[in-house]
Design brief:
mainly alpha
Length: 91
Amino acid sequence: MSREEIEEKVRSFLINDFEIDEDKVFDDARLKEDMEIDSLDIVDIVVIVDRTFGFRIKPEEMRGVTTFHQFCDYIESKTLNIEVCNKTTTN
């Protein structure tokens, strides 16, 4: 999955499922302060990420993730790991 696809999927669920204004979803936007994502929203995000990208968010891995860009970086790194594992098991 490309970085653009990841950003589009994340942007889409933030706007549609959490009703965040499109203007507030940009690279340096802070999840808590700018997008007003709270701890209850995080629980929902865990479920959406699992359903959309096929992995569970681990809270300890999310420490230090504060912006939209960092969140997409995290998802990208996890999806790359999944793709690598899938390729090695099918070869």
